[in-house]
């Protein structure tokens, strides 16, 4: 158990599965006080029971709705009086070639991946400014560093998360707030299930079956960033499976 993590109030979005669920489990073991949000409340409640954190620690949250994100953060403050860490994790990855014109998928990625991250920042920033402390961890992707066929819009949203995070880093220096971007490669989550284009879904499934590493790898990166002394700000972590070329 890390002394830098034990007792910290941590809000996690997208916590019902994948990266969010893995990091919730790890941070609970490290002694953090968790407040978890996701759209699937039944899964959140099961996770809360497994972690023995109480169902009051979870709240149904769609990050594409700014009011719901604000309500999640306000709930954390009501429970614990502060928020030490926000992990903006919720995301979608419905890859497809632009010529397929899957405009609804484009809108969903922008709403969840980019606007959801912005809504999280907006919700938590006033409290962290008041505290003169805090840590905002935004989840980007390897796709936020490079783009491949079928991934143009997804890469655009994840690149935008990196740009927003760097601007945020510079703006929050007077408030002693730390910022971290974590950019995973292929990690075994439900993310490929969001691909609606059949041809792309087949190739994506094969790629993940061959290369994906456990989501606990992401949790370890979060713990590393959070465990640093307060004067150390880990601004970006980019990681992949060792075998992943892309």
Structural category is alpha/beta
Number of helices: 7
Largest sheet: 7 strands, parallel
Residue runs with pLDDT of under 50 for 5 or more positions: none
Mean pLDDT: 95
Arrangement of strands in the largest sheet: 3-2-1-4-5-6-7
Topology of helices and strands:
Elements: E1 9-12, H1 18-29, E2 33-38, H2 41-51, E3 58-60, H3 66-80, E4 85-88, H4 103-131, E5 134-139, H5 152-171, E6 177-184, H6 198-211, H7 216-226, E7 236-239
Parallel strand pairs: 1-2, 1-4, 2-3, 4-5, 5-6, 6-7
Structure commentary:
Pfam families: adh_short (PF00106). Residues 8-190 form the Ketoreductase domain. Belongs to the short-chain dehydrogenases/reductases (SDR) family. This protein is α/β, with parallel strands linked by helices. 46% of the residues lie in helices and 14% in strands. It is built from seven helices and seven strands. Strands 3-2-1-4-5-6-7 form a seven-stranded parallel sheet, sandwiched between helices. Helix 1 packs across helix 7 (216-226), helix 3 (66-80) runs parallel beside helix 4 (103-131) and helix 4 packs parallel to helix 5 (152-171). The N and C termini lie far apart (34 Å). The model has no long low-confidence stretch (mean pLDDT 95).
């Amino acid at each position: 158990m890390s002394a830098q993590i034990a007792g910290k109030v941590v809000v996690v979005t997208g916590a019902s599965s994948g990266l969010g669920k893995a990091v919730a489990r790890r941070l609970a073991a490290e002694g953090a006080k968790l407040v978890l949000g996701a759209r699937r409340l039944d899964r959140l409640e099961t996770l809360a029971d497994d972690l023995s954190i109480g169902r009051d620690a979870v709240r149904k949250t769609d990050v594409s709705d700014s009011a719901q994100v604000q309500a999640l953060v306000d709930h954390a403050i009501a429970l614990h009086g502060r928020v030490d860490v926000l992990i903006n994790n919720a995301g979608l990855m419905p890859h497809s070639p632009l010529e397929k014109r899957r405009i609804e998928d484009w809108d969903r990625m922008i709403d969840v991946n980019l606007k959801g991250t912005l809504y999280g920042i907006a919700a938590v920033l006033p409290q962290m400014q008041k505290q003169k402390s805090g840590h905002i961890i935004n989840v980007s992707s390897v796709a936020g560093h490079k783009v491949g066929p079928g991934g143009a819009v997804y890469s655009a949203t994840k690149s935008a998360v990196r740009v927003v995070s760097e601007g945020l880093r510079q703006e929050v220096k007077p408030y002693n707030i730390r910022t971290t971007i974590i950019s995973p490669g292929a990690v075994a989550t439900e993310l490929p299930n969001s691909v609606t284009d059949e041809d792309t879904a087949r190739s994506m499934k094969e790629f993940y079956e061959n290369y994906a590493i456990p989501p606990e790898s992401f949790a370890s990166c979060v713990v590393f960033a959070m465990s640093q002394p307060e004067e150390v700000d880990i601004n970006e972590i980019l990681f992949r499976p060792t075998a992943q070329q892309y």
